[in-house]
Write a structure and sequence with these properties.
The protein is mostly helical. The chain has five helices and two strands.
């Protein structure tokens, strides 16, 4: 029964293209070249996570939520929250826009 539930969630995400936790994790991995440049103080993170910073399924406080569908439902995922924050950190260091700083602080 657990395998059927898992297959159903994967089918929903990959075949039906429904937004789910799978949507969050499948960003093209790339190196952030700016992270390796000389900085005074802290610089950018070595992966950009720009797509993760665009994630728009947030709770009322602006914290990312992932929808695992089925019995699991919508949940917080600490790794997803951290990557969302790192993406906003990289964007803030480039743009200095307060929106990104506010997302980092949350």
């Amino acid at each position: 029964m657990l395998k059927l539930s898992y297959i159903s969630r994967i089918f929903s995400a990959y075949v039906l293209k429904r937004k789910s936790q799978v949507s969050f994790w499948h960003e093209y991995p790339e190196i952030n070249e700016q992270a390796f440049q000389a900085h005074q103080g802290l610089g950018e993170y070595y992966m950009p996570f720009f797509q993760k910073a665009l994630w728009n399924e947030l709770d009322s406080d602006g914290i990312p939520l992932l929808n695992y569908h089925g019995k699991i439902g919508t949940q917080y995922n600490p790794i997803a929250i951290a990557q969302y924050g790192l993406g906003h950190c990289n964007l803030y260091l480039r743009s200095k826009k307060t929106f990104h700083l506010e997302a980092i602080i949350k």
